[in-house]
């Protein structure tokens, strides 16, 4: 397969996400709300019932571990269909459970591969008692972050290609991210302003609920996370746009989109392949038009 280096600016990628959300914001917000509520409410209930003095239950941690990956794959399926202007519905958030064991297996393999970058020097330090290995623990946090970006497309790949095996998804993510990790980081970092604003009510309400009862911390976080019902689909659709560009599914073309008040940017791009009707244009087709 040809290797595609993403050259679009973060601003252009965000604009692609906004165009795909035009007329679909309500559906996207509802799907995101279902996704976040399904993740957080049962865990909160388990904390309330079984949580100790610190308000944290082992069962809630187990629940979160078992459902995070399936819900993430399901939400990725929803976002892929939304971006590609295919039929999408809120129920797709639950589609990841159709491949439950494969999805959990992918999640575990990703965690192991990423965690090894940090665990290896810790084990070496404990065995040898050499200070050099303790000094490596902090710097190796950086390779762990790089590894996380290397495997960042795995869930999207499984959502896009459910027939792929676990290692095939891992390998394909590694291939896609060659030369694209920094660009993906910059694209995600470009949301930092919105993320900070959305996190303010989350932090405030979480603190208030924690003082009232430690077991209600998750409930406070959920109520305070309402802003993420709008931010998360925006970020996820930008991630899908990046995935399509890195895969070569979006070819050079032209997009015309009306300005949106979501972040005050004008969504008129050159050198971007998706138009408002969701058609993909090749370079030759664009020149002919």
Give me the secondary-structure category: mainly alpha
- Main beta sheet: strand number and arrangement? 2 strands, antiparallel
Q: Classify the helix fraction into a percent range.
A: 55-70%
Strand content: under 5%
Task: Let me know the number of strands.
Answer: 2
Order of helices and strands: HHHHHHHHHHHHEEH
Query: Globular, elongated, flat, extended or rod-shaped: what is the shape?
Result: globular
Radius of gyration: 21 Å
Could you list some keywords that capture this structure?
about 290 residues; mainly alpha; two-stranded antiparallel ribbon; 13 helices; 2 strands; globular; disordered C terminus
What does this structure look like?
- The longest helix has 29 residues, at 100-128.
- Strands 1-2 form a two-stranded antiparallel sheet.
- It has 289 residues and is mainly α.
- It contains 13 helices and two strands; from the N terminus they run H-H-H-H-H-H-H-H-H-H-H-H-E-E-H.
- Helix 2 (25-50) packs antiparallel against helix 3.
Topology:
Blueprint: H1 10-21, H2 25-50, H3 58-83, H4 100-128, H5 131-137, H6 141-150, H7 154-160, H8 166-177, H9 181-189, H10 192-212, H11 217-224, H12 228-247, E1 254-256, E2 268-270, H13 283-288
Helix pairs in contact: 1-9, 1-12, 2-3, 2-11, 2-12, 3-4, 3-7, 3-12, 4-5, 4-6, 4-8, 7-8, 10-11
């Amino acid at each position: 397969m040809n290797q595609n280096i993403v050259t679009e600016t973060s601003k252009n990628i965000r604009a692609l996400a906004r165009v795909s959300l035009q007329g679909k914001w309500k559906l996207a917000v509802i799907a995101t709300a279902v996704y976040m509520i399904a993740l957080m409410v049962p865990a909160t209930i388990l904390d309330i019932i079984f949580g100790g003095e610190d308000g944290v239950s082992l069962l809630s941690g187990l629940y979160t571990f078992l459902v995070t990956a399936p819900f993430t794959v399901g939400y990725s399926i929803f976002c892929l269909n939304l971006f590609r202007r295919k039929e999408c519905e809120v129920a797709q958030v639950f589609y990841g459970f159709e491949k439950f064991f494969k999805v959990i297996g992918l999640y575990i393999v990703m965690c192991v591969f990423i965690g090894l970058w940090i665990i290896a020097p810790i084990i070496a330090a404990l065995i040898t008692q050499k200070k050099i290995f303790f000094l490596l623990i902090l710097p190796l946090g950086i390779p762990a972050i790089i590894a996380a970006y290397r495997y960042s497309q795995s869930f999207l790949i499984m959502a896009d290609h459910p027939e792929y095996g676990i290692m095939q998804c891992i390998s394909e993510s590694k291939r896609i991210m060659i030369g694209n990790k920094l660009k993906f980081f910059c694209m995600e970092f470009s949301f930092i302003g919105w993320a900070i604003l959305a996190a303010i009510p989350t932090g405030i309400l979480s603190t208030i609920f924690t003082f009232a009862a430690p077991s209600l911390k998750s409930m406070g976080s959920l109520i305070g996370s309402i802003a993420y019902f709008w931010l998360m689909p925006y970020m996820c659709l930008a991630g899908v746009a990046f995935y399509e560009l890195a895969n070569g599914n979006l070819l050079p073309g032209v997009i015309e989109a009306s300005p949106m008040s979501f972040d005050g940017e004008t969504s008129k791009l050159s050198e971007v392949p998706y138009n408002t009707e969701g058609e993909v244009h090749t370079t030759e087709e664009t020149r002919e038009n």
